[in-house]
């Protein structure tokens, strides 16, 4: 390792390169979700046919899945703390917890989408359908990637290949998870709570 | 240290210099193809009522000419220099993420092949909706063939390459600088690469969203841009130009960076007002986000929006003008050497200034309403992108060719190339200012004799032929240089930046000893570092997985193209498999 030390460990800004790159990625993702959310807001109330948001959105049910996703962020914090202190038993538990929490959220989304379709809200039904499904669907795809990522880390931990020396790997996965969570809070507020 | 050769070593390479060369040659071939498309356009327009190509083919030619030049020639030619030169300028052994860099290249190559494959299918269903792809022209109802699908899927693939490259160069420039290389000691080319990278990672998500909406409209029957269901075609214009205007600066800032390297070297003077040039570049990067609606004055956004965007557009001319004056002041009192690279850099200043001034005329909405959709606009952006970006990139080619190959391009042939380009460029595009103001519309496959623009169109066509001859001269020059070019040595031009401190071409590991930087012009200000015997330098091995992961994307794109869902899972599986193997292969940077 020593011969590569200059390029591997020395960085001009003192910040791990992967972490810096990931922050740049999150910045880029903000523009992606920003464009999707702006489109949703611009088209709000411009559908020429039903169903409308107030007819179809089920805020109590989505509040539960939102709470579940928020809790998974807490578990992510605990997972990272466990990895950092080398407590792999709890690291495994919390990592699996995050993956399960994410999966539950996705289960709610599958239920929500299929019940909307039954009630007549498809992507083709109206502008609300177009913008709603593409916005929440893109978010759901991000959660799916996150769940796969958490499961991968969990499997590595079960194989004994994840230890405190990989804390940065877990920290970056955590950055992703928290970001996806924050995006959902924006979506939940704008699409569900402030619907017109 | 010996370097592996052979096909496998190129397919698996993670060396920024090899990836730079791959970018260069792919983009150069695309530049020739895009240029060939332009020649066909000019032959069609040589005389009125011409029937050299059909209207449909003409639509494909101008669409693919624009799309090719922007996404598959100019951007990746700049990326070739980002790859090859930036790590050398900042004193690094490679980029921050060598395998991500390889991934960017393969995605770019496959996206290019994907979109251009449309030419080869029966009846050549190449994209035909313009490089701007305005809805509703591109909607299924009005364009049912696969033409637009090739375009929107190809662009999504190419966007991934730009995003990955953007992340990589931001981290490389911020984090892999040699000791002492403070931000305000960075060579201006590296600074402009940094600004361009930020623009890429922020602009490309916006067009990705615009393209995904269009894809859903076409494949799944949504109504994002369809007025019949309440959708709004102007949404496309906003999203496209929100991306499209930063894209203009993505294209010009690297060329400005090249010129800011070439002028000081051949004037033998430090760049005048380095800090101001750097801050102007950063300011252009920010302001580039606030001018997009000047592409949309004819939409009728109302007096307030029009006024605001007119004002921001005029304001952005200020940092651009500042740079031009700084370059001129750099020349003042310098010991000028008129090499080919210097000629192209001077040509850049002259032609880009003309393009910039005609750009300011569009900033005024009443004037723009006369100019929009006419050849005046074509004249403007060719002065900016050909007279500007390409002249700058040619300067970079002559300047860095000896570094990249170890041999100097022929200067006499270089002058012939330069004058053919300079004269050809002005003959082609200057008359378009007048044909445009006289009312000749863009994107129409022919024109009437009664418009009175026959002569000027013929002049444009003659100019285009001169440009073609100029490129033949350049290709011959490159070919000849392989064996007959003078051997360059480490620093043939007497340059001041770190890339000139090492052999040409550089060894695999670039620097035997990572230099310590004490000034902005290390090779002029301090004596060369004593030769240290090279210690063992770790060079990362190659990897297949970036290419495998990249291959997943065009496979996935076949699904919407053929309207076959299961293909998406095949492509996705390839992508995920590539990523996992990549993540868990032993690879030490």
Q: Count the helices of chain B. How many? A: 17
Shape, per Cα inertia axes of chain B:
globular
Structural classification of chain B:
mainly alpha
Profile the largest sheet of chain B: none
Indicate the percent of residues in helices of chain B. Answer: 55-70%
- Helical content of chain A stands at over 70%
Task: Describe the fold and architecture.
The complex is a heterodimer of chains A (196) and B (589). Chain A is mostly helical and 196 residues long. Chain A is built from 7 helices and no strands. Helix content of chain A is 77%, strand content 0%. The model of chain A is unreliable at 1-8 (pLDDT under 50). The model of chain B has no long low-confidence stretch (mean pLDDT 95). Chain B is built from 17 helices and no strands.
Quick rundown:
Chain A is mainly α and 196 residues long. Chain A is built from seven helices and no strands.
List the helices and strands and how they pair.
The complex is a heterodimer of chains A (196) and B (589).
Chain A: H1 5-8, H2 17-42, H3 53-56, H4 59-84, H5 88-118, H6 127-158, H7 167-193
Chain B: H1 7-11, H2 16-44, H3 55-90, H4 98-116, H5 147-175, H6 188-220, H7 233-267, H8 274-287, H9 303-331, H10 340-362, H11 365-371, H12 375-405, H13 411-437, H14 454-484, H15 522-525, H16 545-562, H17 566-584
């Amino acid at each position: 390792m020593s011969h590569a030390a200059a390029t591997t460990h020395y960085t001009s800004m003192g910040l791990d390169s992967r972490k810096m790159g990931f922050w740049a990625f999150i910045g880029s993702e903000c523009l992606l979700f920003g464009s999707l959310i702006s489109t949703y807001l611009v088209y709000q109330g411009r559908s020429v046919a039903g169903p409308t948001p107030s007819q179809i959105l089920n805020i109590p049910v989505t509040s539960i899945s939102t709470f579940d996703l928020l809790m998974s962020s807490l578990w992510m914090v605990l997972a990272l703390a466990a990895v950092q202190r080398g407590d792999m038993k709890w690291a495994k538990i919390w990592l699996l917890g995050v993956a399960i929490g994410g999966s539950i959220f996705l289960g709610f989304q599958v239920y929500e989408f299929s019940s909307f379709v039954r009630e007549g809200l498809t992507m083709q039904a109206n502008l609300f359908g177009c913008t709603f499904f593409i916005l929440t669907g893109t978010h759901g795809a991000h959660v799916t990637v996150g769940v796969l990522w958490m499961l991968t880390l969990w499997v590595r931990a079960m194989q004994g290949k994840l230890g405190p020396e990989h804390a940065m790997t877990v920290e970056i996965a955590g950055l992703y998870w928290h970001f996806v969570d924050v995006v959902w809070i924006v979506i939940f507020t704008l699409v569900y709570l402030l619907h017109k | 240290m010996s370097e592996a050769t052979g096909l496998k070593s190129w397919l698996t390479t993670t060396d920024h210099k090899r990836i730079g060369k791959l970018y260069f040659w792919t983009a150069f071939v695309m530049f020739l193809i895009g240029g060939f498309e332009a020649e066909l356009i000019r032959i069609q327009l040589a005389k009125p009522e011409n029937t050299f190509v059909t209207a449909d083919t003409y639509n494909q030619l101008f669409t693919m000419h624009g799309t090719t030049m922007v996404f598959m020639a100019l951007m990746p030619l700049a990326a070739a220099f980002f790859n090859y030169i930036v790590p050398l300028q900042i004193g690094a052994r490679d980029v921050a993420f060598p395998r991500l860099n390889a991934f960017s290249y393969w995605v770019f190559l496959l996206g290019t092949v994907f979109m251009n494959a449309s030419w080869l299918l029966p009846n050549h269903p190449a994209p035909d909706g313009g490089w701007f792809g305005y809805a509703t022209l591109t909607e299924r109802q009005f364009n049912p063939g696969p033409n637009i699908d090739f375009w929107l899927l190809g662009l999504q693939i190419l966007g991934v390459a730009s995003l990955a490259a953007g992340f990589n160069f931001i981290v490389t420039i911020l984090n892999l600088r040699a000791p002492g290389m403070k931000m305000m000691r960075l060579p201006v080319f590296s600074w402009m690469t940094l600004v361009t990278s930020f623009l890429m990672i922020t602009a490309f998500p916006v067009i990705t969203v615009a393209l995904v909406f269009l894809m859903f409209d076409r494949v799944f029957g949504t109504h994002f841009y369809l007025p019949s269901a309440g959708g709004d075609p102007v949404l496309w214009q906003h999203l496209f130009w929100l991306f499209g205007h930063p894209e203009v600066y993505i294209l010009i800032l690297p060329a400005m960076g090249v010129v800011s390297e070439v002028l000081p070297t051949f004037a033998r003077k430090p760049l005048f007002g380095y800090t101001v040039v750097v801050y102007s570049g950063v300011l252009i990067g920010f302001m580039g986000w606030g001018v997009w609606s000047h592409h949309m004055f004819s939409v009728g956004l109302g007096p307030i929006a029009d006024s605001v965007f007119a004002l921001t557009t005029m304001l952005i001319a200020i940092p651009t003008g500042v740079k031009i004056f700084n370059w001129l002041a750099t020349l003042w009192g310098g010991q000028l050497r008129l090499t080919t690279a210097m000629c192209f850099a001077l040509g850049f200043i002259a032609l880009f200034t003309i393009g910039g001034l005609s750009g300011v005329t569009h900033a005024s909405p009443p004037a723009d309403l006369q100019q929009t959709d006419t050849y005046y606009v074509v004249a403007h952006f060719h002065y900016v992108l050909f007279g500007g970006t390409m002249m700058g990139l040619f300067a970079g080619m002559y300047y860095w060719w000896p570094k990249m190959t170890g041999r100097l391009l022929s200067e006499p042939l270089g002058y012939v190339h330069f004058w053919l380009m300079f004269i050809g460029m002005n003959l082609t595009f200057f008359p378009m200012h007048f044909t445009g103001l006289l009312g000749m519309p863009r994107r129409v496959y022919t024109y009437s004799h009664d418009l009175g623009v026959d002569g000027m169109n013929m002049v444009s066509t003659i100019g285009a032929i001169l440009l073609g001859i100029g490129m033949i001269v350049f290709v011959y020059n490159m070919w000849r240089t392989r064996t007959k070019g003078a051997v360059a040595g480490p620093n043939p031009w007497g340059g001041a930046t770190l890339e000139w401190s090492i052999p040409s071409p550089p060894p695999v590991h670039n620097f035997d000893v990572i230099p310590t930087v004490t000034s902005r012009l290390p090779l002029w200000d301090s004596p060369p570092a004593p030769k240290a015997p090279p210690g063992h330098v770790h060079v990362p091995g190659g990897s297949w997985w970036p290419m495998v992961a990249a291959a997943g994307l065009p496979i996935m794109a076949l699904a919407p193209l053929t309207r076959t869902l299961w293909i998406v899972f095949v492509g996705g599986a390839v992508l995920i498999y590539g990523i996992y193997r990549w993540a868990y292969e032993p690879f030490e940077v």
